[in-house]
Amino acid sequence: MAKDLTKGNLFKGLLALSLPTMIGFSAQSIYDLVDMFWIGKISAEAIAGVTVLSTVFWTVEALNEIIGASSISLISQNFGRKDIKRTHRAIEQTITFKAFVAIIAAVFLAIFLKPALGLFSKDKAVLDAALDYGYIRIFFLPITFSSFSVNTALRCTGDARTPMIIMVLSSILNILLDPILMFDKIPFINIPGFGLGVFGAALATVITQTIAFLAGFYVIFSGKHGIKPSLKGLLRLDKDIDKKLMTIGLPNGIEALLRSLSGVVVMVFVSMFGTAALATAGISFRILNFAFIPLIGISMGGSTLVGQNLGAKFKTRAIKATKIAAAFGFSLMIAFYIFLLFFSASVIRVFTADPEVIDLGRKLLIIGTAGMPLIGLSFGLSSGFSGAGYNFPFLIGSIVSNWVVQIPFLFLAINVLHLGINWVWVSFVTAQVSQALVMLVFYLQGKWVNREVR
Q1: What residues contact 18, with CB distance under 8 A and at least 6 apart?
Q2: What stretches pass through the bilayer (predicted)?
Q3: Domain spans of the chain?
Q4: Are 294 and 329 in contact (CB under 8 A)?
Q5: Gap between the Cα atoms of 268 and 424, Å rounded
Q6: pLDDT tens per residue across span 237-252
């Protein structure tokens, strides 16, 4: 049910929002890892293909970020000031507008997919796997975007439990569907499957995303959540809200695009070291998603707390919420890094028996995450920016960390000094530290506290 977060214990409120979000995203990341486990049973080329497809797919995340980031402050602040009618309109427009934008993005991505994949590999097996996995994901992009919207609407009105249940159940279904759709004989039980290979993995994903969207959509529009937007409202444009959906989160969208493009550049550097390096990145990056799960939970929980309290004009309470979130994020990332120091090789070994990939992955996980505690701190503080609708710091942080620091560092280390692949992993640390410093500077300026969104 919807929940007023302008009163009560802040840490308990943060946990009530963050923990269900963490559990939900953990379930999805477990699915991602299981997905990669099954894909690894096909070949290293299949892993590499899905990895490069995912890298290209990141480029459309900018559009999702623009509307998603805008909707957080719009929904949470209006709900915090008890303007339920405006809350309903913000939810309706977020779902409709994001689906429309996703259709446009899907068309462009389908047109340019093949040329983009050619930047990373000329290996036919790698490219075939990427295309098998990619086209159906592109076709269902509007459903993917819309499923994010319904979960955001629920969280911003204080209900993190329902999205958690939906995400956990859909991830379980996804895990069950993967081997059934991918293999001729389902591993370990030898029951006949559909034998669709990498395409089967993508099909399992879009099936479960569609079910998850429909479930969340039903909860919101049935009124069982405590709010009840109008189905007719999905068909009416609201120029004022639509403009805010495109402008409040625009810095986030540009940031996501720049981050995605920098990810493409980084993967080009990784590809210089061969298919094993690409496979390593594919496995390791999915493992690293686990590091960001608690941070995403803290950020979403903190931003909802901040948004509702700024909407109610409780500025001191909003500031305190960000500090609690920052301490929580820092502590969790310290624990995560200690775990990787001892168990990184064992984790990689779950997905592949290739000794080269295991060694590369171990070094990536240990070296490339050394700055994560600072990222945990900055995620907590920056929840204030999201809740306030002050998203400019995210853009500057991305430009500085990725384009001013990481990519020039990579060019110098790899192209000029001709150093080894470990220096690619070191570049992640330079990005993490620089981004955390930028976010801290903006937080201390305090401009976000005075932002108001209606």
Answers
A1: 160, 294, 297, 298, 300, 301, 302, 325, 328
A2: 12-31, 37-60, 95-113, 133-152, 164-182, 194-221, 264-285, 291-312, 324-352, 364-382, 394-417, 423-444
A3: 10-450
A4: yes
A5: 11
A6: 778 887 887 777 777 7
Token pair for residue 2? 């919807």
**Residue bearing tokens 């929840």:** 383
Residue 291 near residue 329, CB atoms below 8 Å = no
198 burial level (CB within 10 Å; 0-12, 13-18, 19+): buried
Question: Residues 375-412: pLDDT tens digits?
Answer: 889 888 888 888 787 878 888 988 999 999 999 999 99
Average pLDDT (21-27) is: 78
Spatial CB neighbours of 198, under 8 Å, sequence gap ≥ 6: 39, 42, 46, 49, 50, 129, 132, 133, 182
Q: Is the dihedral of CA 47, 49, 51, 57 positive or negative?
A: negative
> What are the tokens at 300?
């979403």
Residue 82 CA to residue 85 CA, distance in Å, equals: 9
**Radius of gyration of the chain measured on its C-alpha atoms:** 21
Name the nearest CA neighbour of 281 among 273, 270, 291, 290: 270
How far is the C-alpha of 249 from the C-alpha of 182, rounded, in Å?
38
- The model's pLDDT over 99-147, given as tens digits with 9 standing for 90+, comes to 888 898 899 888 988 888 887 778 888 888 889 888 999 999 999 888 8
- What's the rounded Cα separation, in Å, for the pair 37 and 283? 9
Dihedrals phi, psi of 192, to nearest 5 degrees: -60, 135
Pseudo-torsion of CA 302, 385, 157, 32, nearest 10°?
A: -70
Q: Three-class SS string for the chain?
A: CCCCCCCCCHHHHHHHHHHHHHHHHHHHHHHHHHHHHHHHCCCHHHHHHHHHHHHHHHHHHHHHHHHHHHHHHHHHHHHHCCCHHHHHHHHHHHHHHHHHHHHHHHHHHHHHHHHHHCCCCCCHHHHHHHHHHHHHHHHCHHHHHHHHHHHHHHHHCCCCHHHHHHHHHHHHHHHHHHHHHHCCECCCCCCECCCCCHHHHHHHHHHHHHHHHHHHHHHHHHCCCCCCCCCHHHHCCCHHHHHHHHHCCHHHHHHHHHHHHHHHHHHHHHHCCCHHHHHHHHHHHHHHHHHHHHHHHHHHHHHHHHHHHHHCCCHHHHHHHHHHHHHHHHHHHHHHHHHHHHHHHHHHHCCCCCHHHHHHHHHHHHHCCCCHHHHHHHHHHHHHHHHHCCCHHHHHHHHHHHHHHHHHHHHHHHHHCCCCCHHHHHHHHHHHHHHHHHHHHHHHHCHHHHCCCC
Amino acid at 198: V
